[in-house]
Amino acid sequence: MKKLASLALALLFVLCAAGLVFAGGTGEKPAGGKITIAYTGFPGGQTPFWAQMTEYVKEEAAAQGVDLIDLSPTVADAAQQKDSVDNAINRGVQGIIIGSIDNRAFGESLRRAAAKKIVVVAVDTAIDDPQVTALAQTDNLASARVMGQYIVDHVSTKGKVLILGGTLGHQTGDARRDGVKQVLEANGFEVIFRAADWDAAKALEIATNELQANPDIVAVFGCWDPGALAGLSAVKQRGLLGKVKVFGFDGLPAAFKSIKDGELVATIKQDNKQMAQVIVRSVVAQIKGQAGVKKLLIDGFVIDQSNVDQYMK
Amino acid sequence: MEVTSRISTRSQILKGIQPLIGLVVIYVAFAAASGTFRTFDTAQTILTQAVILGTMAAGPTIVLISGGLDLSIGSLFALVAVVIGLMLNAHVPVAAVVVLSLAFGAACGTLNGAITVGTGIPAFIGTLGMMKVYRGIAELLGANQDMSKFPDSFQAIGAGYLIPISIMVVCFLLVYVFLSRTKLGFNCYAIGGSNEVSRLAGVPVKKYYLIYYTIGGFFVAVSALILAARLNFTNTSWGNGMELDAIAAVIIGGTSLSGGVGGIGRTVIGVLIVTTLNTGLSHLGVSSSWQRVSIGIVIIFAVWLDVVQRRRELRA
Questions:
Q1: How many domains, in total, are found in chain B?
Q2: Is residue A19 in a domain?
């Protein structure tokens, strides 16, 4: 026992010492001055929006002739994503793109990146830190107001509207909630808001319970398409399809299919391809010493039965 | 008689060393394969990333050796984090937040112990129940709360390398002294080896279990404090699945799930194996899904080694 513990403690030092010994060859600088950037986004396995984003970021990096390392975690765990940023810094990348799971988690890592003159940019969700030098995102508030107006125009009876939200305090989800809520309340609707933590299973549970508890719900808005589709399932299970109208946000293929089938009424299409292109170009430009795009708000637009065919492949 | 005991000590030591050899092999292999891995910065990062899992795993080490099991620690982690966030939001002085959250974690640990030994419900079920209870309470308390932007003096607990790593090392030393120098610690092995024999020998088994679970809860709070300070926010979804990560690290190190065998040194190695694998694979550009697969294989391999050796011992 004693031997084991002392061995283990000795090992802590061996690890550090080994690091020191090897430190002579501090990192391989990319050959031929090729730029390497890291990307860490929301886990794509959980929402197709982010799976697409990863692909678009990779495509654009290839188009720009830079190497891209994908360090996205598999679960929506802010601590894991912070670790991935630290790992990117140690790997000696010149730029990091963060699509944050929680935008509040990165303070200390960002200061380390600054010390090593690594360019850090954000995609989809803003990170409130001076070290983050560019942001590409959907204008969530404006797009949500557009959706709010669309709901007002398409729901004839004034009643309660259930909003299925993301994680509370998450900038993107809060903006979508606020945009829709402002317009609805200004037009005499009552809003019930529930945070579903970007988790479709949770959204289904909440929607089922709320529909049961509030028979006067006239519409459901999901702050992200998988959440909206979960809300739609709850509406269908209660036999309320057509009576309670469901609206989404994201513009994912599954939502388009549902709109075409006449179930989901409408969604906001986010242009994640343009987002990925803009942010990769910005980070590369900044690494090369040019001024990149600082903040680019990309407008979302409504997709409903009138135009869904154009966007289905 | 003498001969058998000597053989078993030798095989015990051998068993303890295997994970260490594994760790060294893994580290050297990554260092050879990746230039960015064999840097001082990366070694520091590995140790820092080990802090949350390491402090968390200190508790299950004791609980598993004693033959117990606590599945609620992941949810308790979230609950303690929420309590920390709420106290800081209410401008409770940082020193008081630290003391109160440690006491709160320990008290919840005691409750877990009481439910298990008091009712005779198997630990698996009792703490599975508490896992739901803690998560639910965390969600109730943390709903509609923005718990972030904590005072600098609180953030210092998790900042940089030195403080968090030192806290982890102190935790390990405390557990080491507890297990090897105290009566409670010796009896931990005895109870884990045979609950019934210990009871007949006059060991107050139930009381001791309460203490082991209490220590487990205390280390959960240490871990939650460091992560809250490091990330500068807390929320109710923390710690999902962390109970199993901690138990996995303890088992990879060579502590037995059936009790009676193990030690904190092994846990240190288990934690470092997991962290080194994750960091090393990400330096090689392996996706985090494959990192999970590899951890899974390591768990199976570690326990398989243990099983094979036990069989050989029985034959000898």
A1: 1
A2: no
